[in-house]
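batch_manifest entry 22 of 60
target: Phosphoinositide phospholipase C
source organism: Gambusia affinis
requested by: lab member K.T.
priority: normal
notes from requester: please return tokens only, no post-processing; we will run our own comparison against the previous entry in this batch. if the run fails, retry once and flag.
--- input ---
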Amino acid sequence: MNKTNGPCDEDLMYKILIKNKKLKSQIRREDKTEESADEGEDADADDEDEDEEDDEYSIQFRAMFWSPRKMGSKNKFNLVSLNGTDQKEKVALHKDLSDLVIYTRSVKFISFCHSRDNQNCYENTSMAEKKARKLMKSSGSSFIHHNQRFLSRIYPAGSRTSSSNYNPQEFWNVGAQLVALNFQSPGLSMDLNNGRFQDNGGCGYVLKPAVLMSRERNFDPNTSYRYLKPIQLVLKVISGSNLPVIKSRNTLDPFVRVEIHGIAFDSRTLTPHWDTDMNFSITVPELCLVRFCVRDQMTLFKSEFVGQYTLPFTSLKKGYRWVPLLSRQGCSLDPASLF
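--- output ---
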């Protein structure tokens, strides 16, 4: 396998891909001609950026495998990230585990230019959210082109000691395939993550939209594309049905927030009155998620979460629709819904 040509999707059906580092001695035997000259003497494993890798323990993530061509629903595979259990202890990599690392070998990210000239298609990089965000803001187009050729994994910063999450949408906007979240922490980020996978029933991967696969255009999610003809979305929240009452209160004073999450130019939040038209102008609909959030107005400046539902903009259909509501943990609140 060369730098640009790897296995096709059908070859990976029903396979488990092990993402991990690999013994340098094995790398030299398998790929002598392409190994960097500055690796030094043989060691236990690749020296990926340890300062960053220390942050990734105990993080669960869902794999978003972007493919340039449409696949059937059965063409799925899993990717497993294997890490140590003690952040302070450096665990030696066993040869048997190293042998299992084939298509998703972890290497250190240096720069987009370095990856283009030296990285193989079966190698992937991981970076903390702060580094990824800096690259996204300074070189959005380059980040997208990088992710057209290689797998990128983004994970929460180690400073998130309470297991909070970043907004995954900003990294989906540049085509990052593995956007890691703390699954134990419910909230907006997990709502968006679950909504992104609504189209495939929450199983397997979803396809990258064409806007992130074109090599001819230099798309940058940080730039406003006023020359593109936007799509107009008109929504009217007519009513709510069977909304759950918070246990600490006997009454409910509900209101709805409708949020658009996409590129910065498209993202917007409206809190309408019931039975009122809302108008959204959406430039890149393929990247947008629509989130309906019901809250209970407690006081003038305080409200509490009641339920929510998030789905891709491309899943919306015209006409009258019932929107089911989910709890903060993502469980169904049936028969609670919005009309």
